What does this fold into?
Amino acid sequence: MRTQKTQEKAGFGSKIGFILAAAGSAVGLGNIWRFPYLAAKYGGGIFLLVYLILAVTFGFALMLTEITIGRRTGKSVMGAYTAMDKRFRPLGWLAGAIPVIIMPYYCVIGGWVLKYLVVFLTGSGKAAADNSSFFSNFIGHSWSPLLFFAIFLLITGSVVMLGVQKGVEKVSKILMPLLLVLIVGIAIYTMTLPGAIQGLEYYIKPDLSAFSIKTVVAAMGQLFYSMSLAMGIMITYGSYMRKEDHIENSVRQIEVFDTVVAFLAGMIIVPAVFVFSGGDSSALNAGPSLMFITLPNVFSDMLGGQIVGTVFFLLVSLAALTSSISLMETVVSMLEERFHLKRIPACCTATGCAFLIGLLSVFGYSIWSDFTIFG
It folds into this structure.
């Protein structure tokens, strides 16, 4: 049985390849963009404490379970649940639907990040920041966001098309160490800014008065989003895992990598915004506009902000790419197993469907912005 599985399904070539690929899935926009503003919104240090407790208990157990299911069955998320027990088939379909829904709009946002990387690379970061309508004009344009969405989606599809070892694993081995170097470098630089220590204190000092059930719910929601749980990714990657690799140690290392990146992202964003807003914590609650409006303004006022902004959006682009790769790999794995497709046709199908579904997000801010469903 094991020989048959090896012949039919490719897998990761090394333990470090699996860990970096799974960590790359976990490390994405959820860590670098969502985690910092949720931490700021829900009491800083108390949110961090609750998140860490959930990560090492519930998060560890769930990731361990998903990877174990994947390695034991050697199947995609839909097939894995059915192989465990036919009564679990609906769970497989539900979990399999999540990456199909997430991937298109995730690549749309990845395209936005790519646009800002190009803006800062070309030296136009300050001009974009000074124009308060730059972001709204960009996403409201008919074709510009579509172009960057298509580019980001094609990069993702090209990597997945190369296969598990030559594509997903090889790219993860390059991007993840680079991502870690970039985020550590920017975090160190941010700490040298005047007043950054006060921002760091706001970020890490627990405010017990801010604790509520909403803090726990927000931390739990972030846990699923950040660690790629309950969306089929870890089951898919588990199915590619070598039999001789220790699952618990691997999960522990993935969680450490993911949590460190999230914490460092907060060290970059929270103190920087805190400093340049004059200590106004409400600036951290900007939500989606934090990355595309607030932070460019921070970079434009910062010494060497053009370079820092370029490195930051390169970092976010890499993080978004590693996550979009894992989402597409999960979809491709289902297509290969369900419809017996080879990798290239499966990748082309996944890319084409993601493009069509993604148009709803792209044009939802421009030519279809007036379209509503039931009001």
In short: Residues 305-339 form the longest helix (35 residues). Residues 1-7 have pLDDT under 50 and may be disordered.
